[in-house]
Design goal:
With 191 residues, this protein is an alpha/beta fold. It has helices at 22-33, 47-58, 71-82, 99-113, 165-176; strands at 13-17, 37-42, 63-67, 87-91, 119-126, 141-148, 187-190. Strands 3-2-1-4-5-6-7 form a seven-stranded parallel beta sheet, sandwiched between helices. Strand 2 (37-42), helix 2 and strand 3 (63-67) form a beta-alpha-beta unit.
C-alpha cells in the first residue's frame, strides 16, 4: 500500500465557497499548505476576505478571491484564471445559504471539472441544513458531505472534545484525498 504523500494536492485547482472565514478559511489554508492553487469566494467584502487572501498568498500559492454574486460569473472567473477545476468545497455558513446554492455551483462547475481525471466535491453544512447530493454526476466524480453539529456543552472529562475549524477542515481534506477514494455520497458528522 503506498504511503500518503503531501504531493496528492500539488498544483490542483480548488474552489472554496465562503472561503474567507470559518471552516472555509481553514480548508483553504490547509489546501494551500498542501500545494493547491486556491480560489475563495465571499459573500460580503470584509477585512476577513482581505486577510484570508493575504494569508493564502503568504503561503506561496496562487490565490484569488471573488465576490459570490452568482455561480455562472464565479465559475467564469475560475475558467479565465486556470481553465480547469479539480476540487470544489461548498461551505454553507448560515441559514441564508441553501442546498440550491450547492446544486447551482456544482452544476456550473461541471464543464471545468469534467475533463479532469477525478472530480472531487465536498459539501459542508450545519445540522440544520438539508443533506444534499447533486444527481447525475459523471462516474469519475465523488461527492461527500460533512455536517457540523452544533457545539454542546463540553464536559470536563469528555472523551471527545469539541472540534475547531481546523479539525473539521481535516475531515474535508480526507474526503478530497486519495485515502477516501472508495467513498462516495457519504456523510460524516462532526461536533
Amino acid at each position: 500500500m503506498p504511503a500518503p504523500t503531501v504531493h496528492g494536492f500539488a498544483e490542483k485547482v480548488a474552489l472554496v465557497i465562503n472561503g474567507s472565514e470559518g471552516i472555509g478559511r481553514a480548508v483553504a489554508m490547509q489546501l494551500a499548505l498542501q500545494g493547491c492553487y486556491v480560489i475563495i469566494s465571499y459573500q460580503k467584502t470584509s477585512e476577513n476576505q482581505v486577510n484570508a487572501l493575504e494569508e493564502l498568498k503568504s503561503l506561496g500559492t496562487l490565490a484569488n478571491a471573488f465576490h459570490f454574486s452568482d455561480a455562472k460569473t464565479l465559475l467564469n472567473e475560475v475558467n479565465n484564471l486556470f481553465g480547469r477545476l479539480d476540487l470544489l468545497v461548498n461551505c454553507l455558513n448560515s441559514e441564508d445559504d441553501s442546498v440550491f446554492q450547492i446544486e447551482q455551483i456544482t452544476t456550473e462547475s461541471l464543464p471545468l471539472m469534467q475533463p479532469r481525471p477525478k472530480g472531487l466535491i465536498v459539501n459542508v453544512i450545519t445540522e440544520n441544513q438539508k443533506i444534499h447530493f447533486v444527481e447525475n454526476l459523471p462516474n469519475h466524480f465523488r461527492q461527500n458531505c460533512v455536517v457540523r453539529k452544533e457545539k454542546k456543552a463540553v464536559i470536563e472529562h469528555e472523551l471527545f472534545s469539541v472540534n475547531n475549524f481546523d479539525d473539521i477542515a481535516r475531515v474535508v481534506l480526507f474526503f478530497l484525498s486519495n485515502e477516501s477514494k472508495a467513498l462516495n455520497e457519504q456523510v460524516l458528522f462532526t461536533y
